[in-house]
Specification:
The complex is a heterodimer.
Chain A (H helix, E strand, L loop, with lengths): L3 E4 L2 E4 L5 E7 L5 E8 L3 E10 L2 E4 L6 E7 L2 E6 L8 E8 L7 E2 L3 E5 L1
Parallel strand pairs in A: 2-11
Antiparallel strand pairs in A: 1-3, 3-8, 4-5, 4-9, 5-6, 7-8, 9-10, 9-11
Chain B lengths: L3 E2 L4 E5 L4 E3 L2 E2 L6 E8 L6 E7 L6 E3 L2 E6 L4 E6 L8 E9 L5 E4 L3 E6 L1
Parallel strand pairs in B: 2-12
Antiparallel strand pairs in B: 1-4, 3-9, 5-6, 5-10, 7-8, 8-9, 10-11, 10-12
């Protein structure tokens, strides 16, 4: 299994508070991704990174920011959480843009 | 418009039956990649297969087989002689790498195999 961890695994927070989710990999893969999974929508790409300090937006990037200061870490920040951001968040990694992605275990975020 | 459509929301089959999961995609790229992932009840996402747009050969891996047809923009997945352990949500995904690096998942098909 690819070495991908996500922290925290569960979080409950209040509307309006900032939240940061962390993805850590030990595979030295260049690409890292953040997705959210919601019933009826499958997985939707939020942001991805193609190298240290290189990031780009996905399909549903509004309300989210990301940072990648090291190859192994990719942070997802909700500057001011809203109830619509209640979801399961998955991090994924891949060696190149053409490769399959390997997913972390997910983080369940509830915004009350 | 959905880039990846999995019209079958839920399917139930009896163990040992064959089942086909449909996936239809939409892209203007000439180079793209298609994937299938499995999400068992435990929640993790497991990679099953990757196919690039230039390779239309069907693939078989044990009880699993995939049929890629560019003419109909479909990438269907068949499980032969289904087993209870096949019960999961299956996602089809599309990677576009020419017009922009974007990745799209279908909404998934929930497969239940009844013993």
């Amino acid at each position: 299994d690819a070495g991908i961890t996500q922290s925290p695994r569960h979080k409950v927070t209040e509307t309006g508070t900032p939240v940061t989710l962390r993805c850590h990999q030990t595979e030295n893969h260049r690409y890292m991704y953040w997705y959210r999974q919601d019933p009826g929508h499958g997985l939707r790409l939020i942001h991805y990174s193609y190298g240290v300090k290189d990031t780009d937006k996905g399909e549903v990037s509004d309300g989210y920011s990301v940072s990648r200061s090291k190859t192994e870490d990719f942070l997802l920040t909700l500057e001011s959480a809203t109830s619509s951001q209640t979801s399961v968040y998955f991090c994924a990694i891949s060696g190149s843009i053409y490769d399959e992605q390997y997913f972390g275990p997910g983080t369940r975020l509830t915004v009350t | 418009a959905q880039k990846v459509t999995q019209a079958q929301t839920e399917i139930s089959v009896v163990e040992k039956e064959d089942v086909t999961l449909d996936c239809v995609y939409e892209t203007r790229d000439t180079t793209y990649y298609l994937f299938w992932y499995k999400q068992p009840p435990s929640g993790e996402l497991v990679f099953l297969i990757r196919r690039n747009s230039f390779d239309e050969q069907n693939e078989i891996s044990g009880r699993y087989s995939w049929n890629f047809q560019k003419s109909t923009s479909s990438f269907n997945f068949t499980i032969t002689a289904s087993q209870v352990v096949d019960s999961a949500v299956y996602f089809c995904a599309l990677s576009e790498v020419v017009t922009g690096n974007q990745f799209y998942f279908g909404t998934g098909t929930s497969l239940t195999v009844i013993p």
